[in-house]
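Regression test case RT-17, inverse folding.

Input:
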């Protein structure tokens, strides 16, 4: 049963947002009973080199990707903040805005191994519960990752993290592959919503 007081937050560079993001977010929302999914494009990702497309373009593509789908909302908080985007600050801002809500944070399982390196990670795991979208090949490799994380987080946090693992479909799409394809003149129609493909073409992004 979907419940509006439980919000699934989904941060990413979204450079560009693609069908993989939308499919796993929808699947996680269905499996875990979320009625609200909030996409949060990051300003400057702490773990990655800077985005290629501007903040405005990435935001515009997120808006086009979700259209008027009532499941999705877009949050501009990180884009409007100066400097790097830290999840702990975003979560604190959400806490202030949505004091009644239970906040969950969706990540792909490929992000799990580095969780302890997130800025103020011990606070992050108290502010939110992670929903971990387990795409292959990561699903088979989660045990050693949890064992390694146990060096950095207490047992109750590890148990909660394990409880967040959620089966999502395997979608072999990444933003970096899409950028390469566009640069190489290859089609991306099956990889992003049509409105996003049109936007990339008409704004000559990733060339
Ligand atoms: P890049 O190829 O530039 O690294 P990306 O496609 O991984 O980008 P991000 O915006 O960095 O996209 O990802 C945001 C979140 O979405 C991350 O938690 C990532 O693990 C997850 N994610 C991205 N693509 C997929 C996918 N195909 N299946 C499941 N999770 C995904």
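Golden output:
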């Amino acid at each position: 049963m979907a419940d509006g007081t439980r919000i699934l937050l989904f941060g990413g560079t979204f450079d560009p947002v693609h069908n993989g993001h939308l499919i796993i977010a929808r699947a996680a929302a269905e499996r875990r009973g979320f009625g609200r999914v909030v996409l949060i494009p990051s300003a400057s990702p702490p773990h990655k080199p800077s985005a290629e497309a501007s903040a405005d373009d990435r935001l515009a593509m997120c808006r086009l990707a979700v259209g008027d789908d009532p499941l999705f909302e877009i949050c501009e908080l990180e884009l409007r903040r100066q400097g790097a985007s830290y999840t702990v600050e975003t979560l604190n801002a959400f806490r202030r805005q949505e004091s009644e809500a239970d906040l969950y944070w969706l990540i792909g399982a490929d992000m799990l191994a580095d969780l302890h390196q997130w800025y103020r990670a011990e606070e992050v795991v108290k502010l939110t519960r992670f929903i971990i979208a387990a795409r292959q090949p990561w699903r088979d490799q989660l045990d050693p990752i949890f064992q390694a994380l146990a060096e950095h987080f207490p047992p109750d946090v590890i148990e909660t993290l394990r409880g967040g693992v959620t089966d999502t479909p395997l979608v072999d799409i990444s933003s970096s592959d899409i950028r390469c394809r566009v640069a190489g003149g290859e089609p991306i129609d099956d990889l992003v919503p049509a409105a996003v493909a049109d936007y990339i073409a008409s704004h000559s992004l990733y060339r």
